[in-house]
Automatic annotation (TrEMBL):
<dbReference type="InterPro" id="IPR003594">
    <property type="entry name" value="HATPase_dom"/>
</dbReference>
<feature type="domain" description="Histidine kinase">
    <location>
        <begin position="51"/>
        <end position="269"/>
    </location>
</feature>
<keyword id="KW-0902">Two-component regulatory system</keyword>
<dbReference type="GO" id="GO:0000155">
    <property type="term" value="F:phosphorelay sensor kinase activity"/>
</dbReference>
<dbReference type="InterPro" id="IPR003661">
    <property type="entry name" value="HisK_dim/P_dom"/>
</dbReference>
<dbReference type="Pfam" id="PF02518">
    <property type="entry name" value="HATPase_c"/>
</dbReference>
<protein>
    <recommendedName>
        <fullName>histidine kinase</fullName>
        <ecNumber>2.7.13.3</ecNumber>
    </recommendedName>
</protein>
<dbReference type="Pfam" id="PF00512">
    <property type="entry name" value="HisKA"/>
</dbReference>
<keyword id="KW-0597">Phosphoprotein</keyword>
<dbReference type="InterPro" id="IPR036890">
    <property type="entry name" value="HATPase_C_sf"/>
</dbReference>
<dbReference type="InterPro" id="IPR004358">
    <property type="entry name" value="Sig_transdc_His_kin-like_C"/>
</dbReference>
<dbReference type="InterPro" id="IPR005467">
    <property type="entry name" value="His_kinase_dom"/>
</dbReference>
<dbReference type="InterPro" id="IPR036097">
    <property type="entry name" value="HisK_dim/P_sf"/>
</dbReference>
<keyword id="KW-0808">Transferase</keyword>
<dbReference type="InterPro" id="IPR050736">
    <property type="entry name" value="Sensor_HK_Regulatory"/>
</dbReference>
<keyword id="KW-0418">Kinase</keyword>
């Protein structure tokens, strides 16, 4: 009887030790994961500080130089003064965009995006965004075409965030298409469980070596001397917004020149596309 009791006690001790070892392993794994997360956030902070410092320098220098020129030349020609003022306005808009993107980036990274999800018709939102960018397209002489199914495509998402994604993708296309010969197509297709949006253009496309990093933050592809200005945040933020809404975003390589960015989102509950699929 005593031997049986001792054996049971020995088994219990071994079991307790095994449990403690497992808890220790789990605790160490959790601690390592938390340390990795903190290191990633610290690297992000350093990247933001370095990038913002660099990006702020050029527009601030330009604004100060032009301001000093106008201040020191009260008799400056009106046309030249207007040109300088337009440059100042453009540079302040650039600073505003940078500030907004950095705020978006930090909010997304902290998991605090201030979301206001609702059921919206993504097709109607596309029409609204396109209308708001009509002046941009006209200024560059860009031909724009949209393709949508006749029925609504309802998704549950923050409308302002989704608008931001669409504006980012369209603005990105505007920057790269040839002036007066540019073409941008935005196509919406509806399936049983989700909706897909593709924004394609006839620009130079994304170089093969840059494609794996196209959605990385603070990364811009192509030749630094010839590529349009930017911070390398728009696509990263857009993808994070889409993923937060339960979708995914990708880059396609069309058979001819140009780029095509696509994303898909799940249809809202009760809004399945059965019987109305765009093939």
């Amino acid at each position: 009887m005593r031997r049986t009791h001792s054996a049971a006690r020995y088994v219990n001790i071994r079991s307790a030790r095994a449990t403690l070892r497992a808890r220790k392993r789990d605790g160490m794994a959790a601690l390592r994961a938390e340390n990795d997360r903190l290191r990633d956030r610290e690297r992000l902070r350093d990247d933001i500080v370095a990038t913002v410092s660099h990006e702020l320098r050029t527009p601030l220098t330009s604004i100060r130089a032009l301001g000093e020129l106008m201040l020191g030349s009260p008799d400056m020609d009106a046309d030249q003064r207007d040109m300088f003022l337009r440059i100042v306005v453009a540079e302040t808009e650039r600073l505003t965009r940078l500030a907004e993107q950095v705020l978006d980036l930090t909010a997304l990274d902290a998991g605090d995006g201030g979301w206001d999800d609702a059921d919206i018709d993504i097709g109607a939102l596309i029409v609204d965004v396109m209308a708001g960018m009509t002046g941009v397209f006209a200024e560059r002489g860009i031909a724009v075409a949209t393709h949508q199914p006749p029925c609504p495509a309802i998704v549950r998402v923050d409308a302002d965030r989704l608008r931001q994604v669409l504006v980012n993708l369209l603005s990105n296309a505007v920057k790269f298409v040839p002036e007066s010969e540019g073409r941008i197509d935005i196509a919406l297709t509806l399936a049983r469980q989700d909706v897909t949006v593709r924004v394609s253009d006839n620009g130079p496309g994304v170089p093969l070596e840059d494609r794996p990093h196209v959605f990385a933050r603070f990364r811009q592809g192509g030749n630094a001397a010839t590529r349009p200005p930017g911070k390398g945040l728009g696509l990263f933020i857009s993808r994070r917004i889409i993923e937060r809404a339960g979708g995914r975003m990708w880059l396609e390589a069309p058979p001819d020149q140009g780029a095509c960015f696509g994303f898909s989102l799940p249809l809202a509950a009760g809004a399945g596309g059965a019987g109305r699929i765009d093939q």
